[in-house]
Amino acid sequence: MSEPLFLKPVFHKKIWGGRRLETKFGYDIPDGDIGECWAISGHPHGHSEVKNGEFAGQTVEDLWSSHAELFGNPKGRVFPLLTKILDANASLSVQVHPDNDYAWKHEHELGKTECWYIIDAEPDSYLVYGHHAKTREELDKMIESGDWDHLLRKVPVKPGEFYYVPSGTVHALNKGIMVLETQQSSDTTYRLYDYDRVEKSTGKKRELHIKQSEDTITVPNKDPKLDIQSKTEGKNKFTTFVKPPISPYFSVYRWEIKEPVTLKHDIGKYTLVSVISGNGKVTVDGKDYDLKKGDHLIMPATVDSWTIDGDLDIIASESGEE
User: How distant, in Å, are the alpha carbons of 9, 120, 175 from that of 157?
Assistant: First the structure.
């Protein structure tokens, strides 16, 4: 089978969500505050379903189990990546994610290293990205006293930027930011601080995970040293944001397409593709498929090469694991 797998997103309500997934991307989202579009997912909390072709109606996890050839016959137990779009209409909790060892032991799933491509950011938007504690003793003391102004590092942000967030990194998206997130397939989040917000449905503050946070936060904070590289081919521009060994779990790219280009992945690899703006088409084995803003697809390992044409801005990723 040599065709792309177009996927149906899954949407999640969040206390910090809004409606921009509808207004900016045209998605038919449920009522309420929708914070997350799970665009490419094999995770049990939100399975992506194939919309086209031979495998229409099947989920990514179905195919991972029954058609491993689509993914290069991988060794892993679960589909390893998760692509999301997040709409932070309000600030997310300040949080941290565990690494694989801690997550397997305590949560029975993968750890969570992630990254963000900033799609949109209101003026004066910022991230919480890292912390200022030099020792664990200092970290624990600042958490216990609620000294968030001195503990948390705030970083101004604007559209087009990229941030790599390894497990153990204290972080938060803040109000007015929309991102495409590439991450390990995990739904484990430890909340360190949540602004004393109350859930409308329960009238209670959301649960915090202080011990787990203290267990997993990297001290002192370590900023990843990225080697972001861009190249121009004709009118097209290709950027590599991160790849192994800096990021052991995934590679992430931006493709700015203005004229036809033929692409391929390494033998045995599959590629995740998300269109964040524009219109065009992708051609596989002589067959054309429309591409538009908000489309998400997997180009399986059974496709040797494909041609993209149009005016398109795409974020693509590949798993770093065999």
Answer: 27, 9, 11
Over residues 206-234, the pLDDT tens digits come to 999 999 999 999 999 999 999 999 999 99
322 vs 313, residue with greater confidence: 313
Answer yes or no: 191 catalytic. yes
Residue 45 in marked binding region: no
Size (the chain), residues: 322
Instruction: Kindly report the CATH number that applies to the domain delimited by 5-216.
Output: 2.60.120.10
Where b means 16+ CB within 10 Å and e means fewer, 104-113 reads eeebebbbbb
Handedness of CA 56, 62, 63, 67 (dihedral sign): negative
Domain with CATH 2.60.120.10 in the chain: 5-216, 229-319
| C-alpha dihedral (243, 247, 248, 251), degrees to nearest 10 | -30
114 is in an annotated binding site: yes
Write the DSSP assignment of 269-294 as a string of letters.
--EEEEEEEEEEEEEETTEEEEEETT
Q: Pick the closest to residue 186 from 104, 307, 245, 68 (CA basis).
A: 104
Q: What are φ and ψ of residue 142, in 5° steps?
A: -70, -35
Secondary-structure class of domain 229-319 per CATH: mainly beta
Residue of 191, 197, 206, 254 with catalytic role: 191
Q: Which two tokens stand for residue 235?
A: 């009118």
pLDDT above 80 (res 21): yes
Query: Radius of gyration of the chain from Cα atoms?
Result: 20
Q: Which token pair is 44?
A: 């049990």
248-290 pLDDT, tens digit per residue, is 999 999 999 999 999 999 888 999 999 999 999 999 999 999 9
DSSP 19: S
